[in-house]
Amino acid sequence: MKKACVFFADGTEEVEGLMAVDMLRRGGVDVTTVSVMGRPWILSSHGIEMKTDQVFEDMDFEDQDLLVLPGGLPGADHLRRHSGLCKILRRFNEEKKYVAAICAAPGILAELGFLDGKKATCHTCRRELLKEKGAICQNAPVVCDGKIITGSGVGGALDFSLRLVEILSGKEKADEIRQAILYTT
């Protein structure tokens, strides 16, 4: 079974994080929600208190296939400032494992140097940063370039999440979910 971690912090955009968790679990992926706040409870960008499965410091990331970074502010800023998370992201990028980020979170990947010369999308609040760091910005809800998947924001969260399912569980499973949730594009 494929495994994924979705990271949460105070100020995380809950729809982007939970949409990825929901769709990946429907796709048969073992998903762990991980807080980078040193405690399992986080307060989302819209004031929803949420409990994660694990705290970053208690996790072992060795057998994970995918890391997912939701956006939201200041959630994405908390993720960027977490040195342990940045270390794991660098390792995944070096090992050519999947890393996904949506909304403001692709800015984290840009700052880490992952997007130089790569196609990517993000929320407009981070577009200039991505360009400054060498990304080739696309106007699309989701963009895949190698093992890096980026999403534009809440409006594209379902497309982003279904692409993650397609990558880890196959197109047939993603299409099955689209049909089950009555999603037509």
Key terms for this structure?
alpha/beta, globular, 11 strands, Rossmann fold, Prot/Nucl_acid_deglycase, two-stranded antiparallel ribbon, 185 residues
Question: Can you describe what's shown?
Answer:
It contains seven helices and eleven strands. Helices cover 36% and strands 22% of the residues. With 185 residues, the protein is of the alpha/beta class. The longest helix has 13 residues, at 14-26. The protein has one domain (3-174): Rossmann fold (3-Layer(aba) Sandwich), CATH 3.40.50.880. The protein has helices at residues 14-26, 75-81, 83-94, 106-111, 127-132, 157-169, 171-180, and strands spanning 3-8, 30-35, 41-43, 49-51, 54-55, 66-69, 98-102, 119-120, 136-137, 142-145, 148-151. Strand 1 (3-8), helix 1 (14-26) and strand 2 (30-35) form a beta-alpha-beta unit. The strands form three sheets. Strands 5-2-1-6-7-11-10 form a seven-stranded mixed sheet, with helices on both faces. Helix 1 (14-26) packs parallel to helix 6 and helix 6 (157-169) packs across helix 7. The protein is globular and about 40 Å long. The mean pLDDT is 97. It comes from Sellimonas caecigallum. Pfam families: DJ-1_PfpI.
